[in-house]
Amino acid sequence: MPRWAQLTVLPALNLLAALLVTGFVTWMIGEDPWECLQLLVSGAFGSGEGIGYTLFYTTGFIFTGLAVATAFHAGLFNIGGEGQAYLAGLGVTLVVLAFDHTLPPIVLVPLCILAAMGFGAAWAFIPGWLQARRGSHIVVTTIMFNFIAYSLMLYLIGHHLIEAGSQNPTTREFGQASWIPAIHQVAAGMGISLPSTPLNLTFVMALLACGLFYLLVWHSRWGFQLRTVGVNESAARYAGINVSKTIILAMCVSGALSGFAAINELLGSTHRMNVSFTNGVGFVGIAVALMGRNHPVGIILSALLFGGLTQGGLELSFEKPVITREMIIFIQGLIILFCGALENLFEPFIAGLFKRKEDK
Amino acid sequence: MTDFAIGLNGICKRFGAVQANRDVSMNIAKGSIHGIIGENGAGKSTLMSILYGYYQADSGSITVDGREVRIRNSQEAIRLGIGMVHQHFMLVDNFTVLENIVLGAEGGLLLKQGLAKAREHLQALNRDYSLEVDPDAIVGELGVGLQQRVEILKALYRGADVLILDEPTAVLTPQEADHLFCILRALREQGKTVILITHKLREVMDITDAVSVMRAGTVVGNVRTADVDKEKLADLMVGRKVTLKVDKAEREPGAAVLDVRQLCLTDARGVKLLDDLNFQVRAGEIVGIAGVSGNGQSELLEVLAGMLEPTSGEIRYQGADLLQEKSSQPRAALYRKKGIAHVPEDRSREGLVKSFPMFENAILGYHDDKSVSKGGLYSRQALLARTRDFIRQFDIRPDNAQLRVGLLSGGNQQKVVLAREIHANPELLLIGQPTRGVDIGAIEFIHKRLVELRDAGKAILLVSVELEEILALSDRILVMAGGQISGEVAARDADTISLGLLMGGHKH
């Protein structure tokens, strides 16, 4: 099968299959699938506000998608993006709570970003080290580290970081010095009026990260070593590449990228940390990377799909009370199932079609 | 008229641009040993894979016992009574012989019943063919020769009447090979048909009744063994008079570049893989290491290339012991920077990354080279320019630097590796199986390059299981057996018989 078909026909078919099943389920609970689809799409892309929210969600997904892809190029399946983003949030929060009344934004925000990267990387370093030096399987350790991160954060927020006198497990609001400007504010500064959404400058960082990712993976010395380790460890050893160092470093970069999802959420939108701020962004990143074939362009597109689905789904559940948030998660799950886990479901069939055409 | 066990008629098979089999026809008489002989890449293995159901022929037909059949997968082949003993054994190392044999044919719901029945059957087979295999031995603990017999038993247990053996002697000592041939003769006496794939003329002459010679995907001769001699077969096989002799002038070697002293390597189970090796390789000489594969040659190469840590000993390179060097980078990288180049035995697993384009493989191992990168980023121009140089100098085909290396033929892949390693202008070249899976044209080319390198005053350590190659290239020959050097011979005094004895572990 030609490469273009592999990159376009297959994902489209997978997406279509997921939508068909969704439509069937929607019909079974007594709703009109076509109308729901229209609501979903217009909710995500039909208005300036919808687009803003969609891109806000997309931002987080791009980062966690890049995170999964980085590890994947080194032959590692990092399931721990969620926990790494979580811990990164802790780093951000600690810095903000300590300095948001003393440091100016120009210093505080970069410091927060460094903290997010550092904490995310550190949380990924441990499974990376265990894999490289002790042979523990990265899938198992990163899954476990998600749970550890969750419990740790629950404890820290509940007992130490909680706002005095509050019943909600959340920190106090961050000082304004830590807020990353929203796109509509930046636009207003340039005299352009955009609807107010949480879409913020982290989105620009996400696009920059995609460019850097491309250079790093396909054009840099380190990327060459990373990919060599990923596809052929024997060849890497032959070439004198330090395999365990490469694995550990790949995990650290992966964790640091996940950390940006926390930046987007905490400094760009909520301006306080609560226990559930990551909200599955790390897990969606796995699907984004799979569907985007670990390439930045693919990752942007699939992150956009999942971002639209999140935003459009929320709109849809406002309009149609029958379609609950769980239903949206169900749809996301189906898409992940068809585009990720069953990625090659239709491949033999399509390959057969192409072969027959070729034979003629 | 003789009964034919297998008939192949006009078999064609194409892989992309490569016509692996072109109009191949042969008849294999029942109860005979039939040799299929040809150079690497002549299409023997493809043909047998078609017969065993791994591939489908593009056209042509197969008959078994005179009936035309379609073999779509190996289960169907087994049902038709065709069994195959692969070059690489398909055994589960930590299972017993018995468990391996019933694997996939357990029979019945409970393993115990199946095993009991299998044991009886197995003992009968053992007796009939004097295989001498203990059903309760753990396969991983058996020697190569015995493991091969387990494979034969496995095929017989599944009711094979036709047994295909793919290069069965590649991993055996001459003595083990003789035992194998006894077994094959016993099989023939019991009416089984044996197809022996090989590229060794001696074996064909020794044991087969008839032989089909293949060259470049076609059958160039179906003859009775009694009617031909070695020379005739060799001519058929190669299609022209080929002397593997390489033009090589006598040359006085210079100072020792590599001086190995008391080198030992013991594995985790305490087995001595390398046992007190002492030898030198001097500038301007090719030292060949002969031996049946699996006698420590691979480990020796890996130790010298820095991929394996020896247990003890010294590796003196240009006067200094490499093992005393302290460095934060992996040894393989350090040694390479010091001028030790390495063409690994297994080029597709180690020497190349098949999914990478040629221009990336051109820097594997030399990826830190400052001349192709700036500030950590590679210059695509520089990479492509270097690769095009390789393509020109080594006549690599197709001449597309962007092509994935996995799509090249074996010979061209090897040229990529060789070009890369020679480009580094090494003082010492370690080279393993330089022409394994390489077509004849490329073999001559590669041999010429190696001699050029030697004439330029470089030291070369050559490991090969092909005696002809060792004899043609080496100035001195060391023979390895059981992790030791069992003898050293000057190339002009060496012949296959004396080397064969040394390979079997007979000390000088």
TrEMBL record, chain B:
Gene source species: Aquitalea aquatica
GO cellular component: plasma membrane
UniProt cross-references to Gene3D superfamilies, sorted A to Z: P-loop containing nucleotide triphosphate hydrolases
InterPro entries: AAA+_ATPase, ABC_carbohydrate_import_ATPase, ABC_transporter-like_ATP-bd, ABC_transporter-like_CS, P-loop_NTPase
Entry-linked CDD domains: ABC_Carb_Monos_I, ABC_Carb_Monos_II
Cellular compartment(s): Cell membrane
Protein name: ABC transporter ATP-binding protein
Lipid bilayer topology: Peripheral membrane protein
